[in-house]
Structure formats: structure tokens, C-alpha cells
From TrEMBL:
SUPFAM superfamilies: NagB/RpiA/CoA transferase-like. It holds the Pfam family 5-FTHF_cyc-lig. PANTHER family: 5-FORMYLTETRAHYDROFOLATE CYCLO-LIGASE, ATPASE INHIBITOR/5-FORMYLTETRAHYDROFOLATE CYCLO-LIGASE. It is an enzyme of class 6 (ligase). Belongs to the 5-formyltetrahydrofolate cyclo-ligase family. This is 5-formyltetrahydrofolate cyclo-ligase. Keywords: ATP-binding, Magnesium, Membrane, Metal-binding, Nucleotide-binding, Transmembrane, Transmembrane helix. The chain crosses the membrane at residues 27-53. It catalyses: (6S)-5-formyl-5,6,7,8-tetrahydrofolate + ATP = (6R)-5,10-methenyltetrahydrofolate + ADP + phosphate. It comes from Xaviernesmea rhizosphaerae. Its EC number is 6.3.3.2. Its cofactor is Mg(2+). Gene3D superfamilies: NagB/RpiA/CoA transferase-like (3.40.50.10420). The lineage of its organism: Bacteria, Pseudomonadati, Pseudomonadota, Alphaproteobacteria, Hyphomicrobiales.
Length: 197
């Protein structure tokens, strides 16, 4: 089995488990994820954090994003521009979100583009070394590479449910591991935390 075939197998397997979560289990998991995120994500006032509007059966981090905004964070969401590119637009308080392509939602074109310091990443699967499997489009990989090429230091925090963890994610040399993962079990750091409390 090739690396890509193994990733596809793990992606399908873990997304099926995520989809199968019951309503009560999902509500409890989202509440725990919120509590761990609020306790563990430290932000300097004015720091730019990109989250995501949940689609399909993703964890719902909207309450966490709003709570972090109340603490002084500037919140951004990814917006798909084309089949290759996402940008990050600031989600101003009370601003609407609109359909932005490929089933996602984000701020409209009038919202300013920003460069986030912290990325909360949706994912299909992850392992204990911080490697992740996304949805297969490579959007975040390209966006992260672009931010790093611009000289920015970006903290990557995956967001998933605990059932999405696998024993090992196939990875390549160019794959950048996450710094941490946030699940209903807690905020687990894989690398030295780069955030100041």
C-alpha cells in the first residue's frame, strides 16, 4: 500500500467514526473541548488566531473562538479562493459569515486579510507524534508554507475528537507536524509551547 493509499484509508476510517458519534456524545465532547481550549490556549492581546466554521461532523469550536475574542484575540477564518489557495480573513464581531466555496463558511471579500499567529486546524486523523491527515486537498499545507516563507512563526493546533487518533500517520519530509492537538481529552503539546501565558 502506498503512503497516499494508507492516508486515504485512515482518513475514511476516522471520518466514519467521527460521523457515527451520537448526539449526546458529541455535545459532551464539544463542551470538554471548549473547556480545555479556553484553559490551555494562551494569547497575547491582539494576537491573530484562525479557527474554522464547522462543516460535516467537525468539532464545533465557534464558542471557543468567541471566548478567545472576549480575551482580546483577533479571530480569522480560512477562505477558499480557488482549487489551490486559502487565505485568512478577519472575522469582526457580529460580522456575517457567507458561503466561501467547497462547503465552507467565512467572512466575505470586504473583510481584511490577515496573517494568523495561531492556526486551529481541522483534520481527519492524527498520531501521538503530531502528524496529521487533513482532507486531502493540501490547502492548509500550502497556506502554512506561505506564512513560514513570509518569515512568520505559526503555532499549529489540530482540533479533533479523541477517536480520530491513529497509531501512526504516514508522513513525508516536507510535512510540518502540529505543535499540539486539542480534543475532548485535553490540549496535548507535541513540541515546546511557543505561546506566552
Amino acid at each position: 500500500m502506498t503512503r497516499q493509499e494508507e492516508k486515504a484509508r485512515l482518513r475514511a476510517e476516522r471520518l466514519a467514526l467521527r460521523d457515527a458519534m451520537g448526539a449526546e456524545e458529541r455535545v459532551a465532547a464539544n463542551a470538554a473541548l471548549f473547556a480545555h481550549g479556553l484553559a490551555g490556549i494562551a494569547l497575547a492581546p491582539g494576537a491573530i488566531l484562525s479557527g474554522f466554521w464547522p462543516i460535516r461532523s467537525e468539532a464545533d469550536i465557534r464558542p471557543l473562538l468567541e471566548a478567545l475574542r472576549q480575551r482580546g484575540a483577533r479571530i480569522a477564518l480560512p477562505v477558499v479562493l480557488d482549487r489551490e489557495t486559502i487565505v485568512f480573513r478577519e472575522l469582526l464581531a457580529d460580522a456575517p459569515v457567507v458561503k466561501t466555496g467547497f462547503g465552507s463558511y467565512g467572512p466575505g471579500p470586504e473583510a481584511p486579510e490577515v496573517a494568523p499567529e495561531i492556526l486551529l486546524l481541522p483534520l481527519s486523523a492524527f498520531d501521538a507524534r503530531g502528524h496529521r491527515i487533513g482532507y486531502g486537498g493540501g490547502y492548509y499545507d500550502r497556506a502554512i508554507a506561505r506564512l513560514v516563507a513570509e518569515g512568520l512563526s505559526v503555532t499549529l493546533i489540530g482540533v479533533a475528537f479523541a477517536i480520530q487518533e491513529v497509531a501512526s500517520v504516514p508522513f513525508e519530509a516536507h510535512d510540518r507536524p502540529m505543535d499540539a492537538v486539542l480534543t475532548e481529552g485535553g490540549l496535548r503539546w507535541f513540541r515546546q509551547a511557543k505561546m506566552d501565558g
